[in-house]
Amino acid sequence: MPTRGSDPKSSPRWFLLFGLVPLLVAVAGRFAPAEDSLPLPVLVKRVFPSVVVIETFDKQMKALGRGSGFFVGSPPQVLTNWHVVKGAHRVVVKTADGRRLSVGDGESFDDRADLVLLPVMEASSGIKPLALANLCRID
Q1: Are the C-beta atoms of residues 99 and 78 closer than 8 Å to each other?
Q2: d(CA 17, CA 73)
Q3: Using one digit for the tens of pLDDT, what is the confidence trace for 2-34?
Q4: Given a cut of 80, is residue 79 above it in pLDDT?
């Protein structure tokens, strides 16, 4: 079995980039006019500070899994998939700049849509929530 760090896929940066690709596709229209698109490196640079890695643990603090998400709203919360955190005893959010933030109680979830909003306990400076488009206004 490979040791932690020997497999490039065990790197938090890999999870950030893996989670970032679907996010970029989802928000690309938010940052660019319909007739013109931003180059991918520019788009990545804009959203990267908002993307996080989610780590989950059981009661014995044994790692259960990882996922990705991103900051939204004010005060900042993390939007991720419900299946990522379901059944976890503890959830830790790792930011793009390496900070580890705890998640508080009071998450809002929709298990049918597989979405959850996680309140971040140590919300501090440097967090850049993404602005989400209002789908009711999209033609």
Answers
A1: no
A2: 22
A3: 333 434 444 445 444 455 445 544 554 454 444
A4: yes
Q: Which residues contact 77 (CB under 8 A, 6 or more apart)?
A: 71, 117, 118, 119, 120
Question: How big is the CA angle at 49 (ends 45 and 55), to the nearest 5 degrees?
Answer: 130
Q: Return phi, psi of residue 11, to 5°.
A: -75, 135
DSSP label of 5: T
Domain boundaries, the chain: 8-137
Indicate the pTM of the whole model: 0.69
DSSP 117: E
Architecture per CATH, 8-137: Beta Barrel (2.40)
Distance CA 136, CA 51 (A): 25
Closest by CA to 119, choosing from 101, 97, 100, is 101
pLDDT of residue 134: 65
Judge if the upstream peptide bond of residue 75 is cis by omega within 30 degrees of 0: yes
Mean pLDDT of the region 80-96: 93
Closest CA to 70 of 87, 51, 89: 51
